[in-house]
Specification:
Length: about 180
């Protein structure tokens, strides 16, 4: 089953996505903006990762395509907790596709899928404090709330950085009229 937004389609990862995902994971520019750290990844490692990640009831990883069928990014719902009805969500987009509205459309599509199809009650994520674009995407454009800050939580770029914790509940999502937002 694919997940559809107005601008994007979210679909399962295929082996043919290995080169695109490899570009994302090996991008020093993208690495600066995302939580965690990557190590140089080879084509062989990327293909093995794809072979081993099949989507499940606890982890869903998706390629984001635009209407022309071009892979523009990656989205996930992971650590899905069937008891508490929660999940962790994140996105990554190739540099040339940022600022096109794909990220907002992806987050909205993920929320609709998580809350209306999977019956989750809460989504959460963490963002590096200096990543104003991502914080704005989630909080201003998509209705998530900042729930706290973990001080000096991520070592990146030679310093310890704060990590902003964000989240949204199903009830909060129901109150939004996101598709009408600009």
């Amino acid at each position: 089953m694919n997940v559809f937004g107005e601008l994007v389609t979210l679909r399962s990862i295929e082996r043919t996505d290995a080169d695109f995902l490899l570009e994302l994971v090996n991008s020093p520019e993208l690495e600066y903006w995302v939580v965690g750290s990557s190590v140089p990844t080879s084509t062989i490692q990327q293909e093995k990762w794809i072979d081993n990640i099949g989507n499940s009831h606890t982890d869903i990883r998706l390629i984001v395509e635009n209407k022309e069928g071009v892979a523009v990014g990656f989205a996930n719902l992971v650590q899905i907790d069937p008891i508490n009805r929660t999940a962790v969500h994140g996105v990554k987009f190739a540099k040339e596709f940022r600022g096109c509205g794909y990220a907002k459309d992806t987050v909205i599509a993920i929320m609709e899928y998580a809350f209306n199809t999977l019956n989750l009650n809460r989504l959460e994520s963490t963002i590096l404090e200096y990543n104003d674009s991502s914080i704005g995407l989630y909080t201003k454009a998509c209705g998530w709330a900042v729930e706290g800050v973990k001080k000096s939580a991520v070592y990146k770029n030679g310093v310890y950085n704060n990590l902003v914790m964000i989240g949204i509940t199903k009830d909060d999502f129901k109150q939004l009229s996101l598709k009408k937002c600009s």
